[in-house]
Design goal:
about 300 residues, mainly alpha, 13 helices, about 0% strand
Length: about 300
């Protein structure tokens, strides 16, 4: 059975294959040009890191533009980070990026000699478990985060591990459901958000428990987040759409077989409007600088709405 990441990537690649070849080429060239001399990718400032490297590799992969030279160089960068002290998000991103390198170009980042490293990562993730059944953002956290729980479960799946007591993870997700639809990021939050809702649904799917979701309430919540711009907003208090919410919202609606709950053609037009002339995507209407993370979101959104 395919992992969540593999399944999603194959679906996005299938959609992206039907995009205009000139659009694919422009963004692929832009992404490849963002690779640093060390093989990694960076954000808008600072050095290469696993987080942005993972997004760049995923974007290139769905464009069928992750060439062996790019993939091998990225794998070298990732190997150089294996024994550094990474933050939780970078550590999980490293696992994601390593899986992409191996699946796409056969470049091994984590080999059989790194079993102890994998065990240590699994132990670190377990240290993030909280009494509510979720995963916190740091070992000091007292309450679970829906997004961190999603990342942790995906990371364990890529390492061919299961979370300890997955039923408690599911119970945590149920506790994050908002009465009016959608899911909370943390229990103290006052309103549901598109991104934690996507994270919750993605976790349910990874744990083969999509049938436990109140699909109607979730779909209605996401449909209400579509703005006049065409994209989705992060929550009811945010007045403008963004590519992250548009992307994760469409992934979730597709997982729930409800992509027609929103005006998908309007979502596509919104994503197209976020393209920079020289390649790459910006994140929202007032944003001026393209980066590799939003470029992945933009391409994924176009892939999901290509037939709209």
């Amino acid at each position: 059975m395919l992992s969540y990441l593999q399944d999603l990537t194959l679906r996005l690649a299938a959609g992206a294959s039907r995009l205009d070849p000139a659009v694919r080429r422009r963004h692929a060239d832009w992404l490849a040009a963002q690779q640093r001399d060390d093989g990694g990718f960076a954000g808008r400032e600072g050095d290469s890191d696993p987080y942005y490297t993972a997004f760049a590799l995923r974007a290139l992969w769905i464009l069928d533009a992750l060439t062996p030279p790019v993939g091998q160089a990225a794998a070298g960068f990732l190997r150089s980070r294996l024994h550094r002290r990474e933050g939780i998000v970078d550590l999980i991103s490293l696992i994601f990026a390593a899986a992409i390198c191996e699946l796409s170009v056969g470049a091994v980042v984590i080999d059989d000699d790194d079993t102890g490293w994998v065990d240590n990562v699994a132990m670190l993730l377990q240290s993030l478990r909280t009494s509510d059944g979720g995963y916190a953002k740091s070992p000091e956290g007292r309450a679970g985060s829906t997004y961190q729980t999603f990342l942790s479960v995906l990371c364990l799946e890529l390492m061919q591990r299961q979370p300890v007591d997955p039923d408690k993870v599911l119970s945590f997700l149920h506790s994050q459901a908002h009465p009016e639809g959608g899911y909370l990021e943390i229990r103290a939050a006052k309103r549901a958000g598109v991104n934690p809702t996507a994270a919750a649904v993605g976790t349910f799917k990874t744990l083969a428990a999509l049938d436990q979701i109140d699909s109607e309430a979730t779909i209605d919540f996401l449909a209400e987040m579509q703005s006049d711009e065409g994209g989705l907003t992060a929550n009811t208090r945010i007045p403008f759409a963004d590519l992250l919410s548009s992307c994760t919202g469409m992934i979730t609606l597709t997982d729930l077989n409800a992509a027609d709950a929103v005006d998908a053609a309007a979502v596509r037009r919104y994503a197209e409007s976020m393209q920079s002339p020289g390649g790459g995507f910006t994140g929202f209407s007032l944003d001026q600088i393209a980066d590799v993370e939003y470029t992945f979101y933009g391409l994924a959104t176009l892939a999901l709405t290509v037939d709209a």
